[in-house]
Amino acid sequence: MSHDTADPTPRAPAGDAPLTPSRLAADVQLLAPALVMTPRGPMEGYAAVVADGSFLAVGPAARLEREHPGLTPVRLPGHVLMPGFVDAHHHLTQSFGSALAFGEPSEIFSRVWVPLEGALDEESAHVAAKLAALESLRGGFTTVADAGTRAPVDVDALASATTGAGIRCVLGLVCNDADGTTRADRAAVLAAAEKHLTRYAGADLVHPSLAVSVPEAATADTLRDTARLAAEAGAVVQVHVNEHLAAVERSLVRHGLRPLEYLREVGALGPQLLAAHATLVTPAELTLLADTGTAVSYNPVASAWKGNAVAPATTMAERGIRFGLGTDGTRGDAFRLAEAAEFAQRLAYGLATGDSSCGAGWSWLDRGGAGGADAVGLGALTGRIAAGAAADFLLVDVSGPEMRASWDLPWELVRRGNRDQITAVFTAGRLRMWRGRAVGWDDSALVERAAELAAEVVGRARVTRVHPTSTRARAGSAVR
User: Fold this and answer.
1) Up-side HSE of residue 276: CA atoms within 13 Å toward CB?
2) Nearest to 307, CA basis, from 378, 350, 243
3) For the residues of 229-264, what is the DSSP string, one character each?
4) pLDDT digits over 37-87, tens only?
5) What is 295-309 written as a DSSP string?
6) What is the pLDDT of residue 181?
7) What backbone phi and psi angles, to 5 degrees, belong to 365?
8) Does some domain include residue 456?
9) 215 and 268 both lie in a single domain
10) Measured between alpha carbons, how far is 313 from 302 in angstroms, rounded to an integer?
11) Are residues 133 and 256 part of one domain?
């Protein structure tokens, strides 16, 4: 039965054991929550069998219990089992400097991120990436797409960090050959790209990707060839596109074309391209995205913090454009990201048109899960609760005051959900996070080491801020 007005949080029957991490540690288990968030919506009386890192079966609990008599059901009253969120655009090695971008205008990459990442070494890059992965897991993400680091280290430092944390990672390798390097390096760039695409064959949680920082950071030949290599490997190329006015104007001056038009001209558009941001898009560019099957990462928090515009995501959905939700490394909180996705559409477009729904709630859960998985090239693997899909999921407590009287769970999760409601996070069928703490490794020690290294890295990075910190701004204000 689909969930309309029924109370989703039945009380635990007498005799049920308390829910503990040990009860969720079996390699094969039958999970019976109050609700399962299926591709058709939330379903009561459903259960899921997890085995070998995947969902073996999803369906009515009574049927699954009959079909698997050897499994003792793990009753999860008051919980919804839902897909883990997919962060379709992250910068894992920027975690030491997140607050450096607060209150800053757009185009901060050259003043903040390039010097910060350039100051990282092997250890600090690893720790920064693992810190970002920890925050993402705590916030309900089971997959992150890293758009490529500028740190002068082997990207395996990031792969080992995300694997150690237990999060699935689409790992970008930067393939710039017109950004401070010479055209003679193109052969080496493409050789490194081919090696990267095969390097993690057989890896459970690492999925290689290629990346170009912005279209002008690579030659036309390299943009075309990275697109070809990624398409042949079933991977994606991540490119920041149409994010800021300055970037659009640079493209017009250099090529006489807007960024997406230029990518079309050189043969880089297509299902293998993940266009980050796409906030400044014309109707013609929307048609290019729709006609070529190009995917977009819609990053609403980044628009609020440092953007020039909000991507027209509801229009993209109507046009059949593939897109997921991305944090851009702002904050690893999936429910707040879903809320921001809807909220930004409401303010930027809904108020002007009288659209009070702006995606009807369910859209943002879908784009945060299955849509995001599709955008980053993992649509066949993750993002949904269904037989055959990877067991990347959350157990979310909906028994608290925010949702105890439940009338429309998808809307409630978007507008009222919080990461403190996440009881457990699983990737590849393994419990990775329990009530906000890592399982199987010392997250406290990582946070302490990250604080030490962050001070050192920021201290030697030549970061330039335009605006003062909030403390200095307050001290200089006429209002005391």
Assistant:
1) 28
2) 243
3) HHHHHT--EEEEES-SHHHHHHHHHHHSS-HHHHHH
4) 999 999 999 999 999 999 999 999 999 999 999 999 999 999 999 999 999
5) EEEE-HHHHHHH-S-
6) 53
7) -65, -40
8) no
9) yes
10) 14
11) yes
Place of tokens 């391209």: 273
Query: How far apart, in whole angstroms, are the C-alpha atoms of residue 321 and residue 367?
Result: 11
Token pair for 407: 């009338």
CB atoms within 10 A of CB 466: 10
| pLDDT in the model for residue 346 | 97
**pLDDT tens by residue, 381-416:** 999 999 999 999 999 999 999 888 889 999 999 999
Q: Are residues 71 and 93 in the same domain?
A: no
Give the Cα separation of 164 and 217 in Å (integer): 32
Tokens found for residue 220: 């036309």
Higher pLDDT, 186 or 298: 298
Give the other-Cβ count within 10 Å of 407's Cβ.
12
Measure the CA–CA gap between 196 and 178, rounded to whole angstroms. Answer: 20
Residue 281 structure tokens: 């898009």
251 backbone dihedrals φ, ψ, rounded to 5°: -65, -40
**CATH number of the domain within which 429 lies:** 2.30.40.10
Q: Which residue, chain included where needed, has tokens 């949904």?
A: 384
Q: Which of these, 174, 172, 175, 159, lies nearest to 221 by C-alpha position?
A: 175
Q: In terms of domains, do 219 and 285 share one?
A: yes
Shared domain for 30 and 166, answered yes or no, is no
The answer on 95 and 74 residing in a single domain is no
Domain end point (choices 323, 356, 375): 375
Q: List the strands of the sheet with 168-174, edge to edge.
A: 85-90, 141-146, 168-174, 206-212, 237-241, 273-277, 295-298, 322-325
Q: Please list, in sequence order, all residues whose beta carbon lies within 8 angstroms of the beta carbon of residue 197, skipping any fewer than 6 positions away.
A: 208, 210, 229, 230, 233, 235
Q: Are 58 and 38 in contact (CB under 8 A)?
A: yes
283 plus 424 within the same structural domain: no
Let me know whether 309 and 190 are in one domain.
Answer: yes
* Residues 10, 59: Cα–Cα separation, whole Å: 19
Total tally of structural domains belonging to the chain: 2
Instruction: Say whether 146 sits in a helix, a strand or coil.
Output: strand
Instruction: Print the domain residue range for 426.
Output: 21-84+385-438
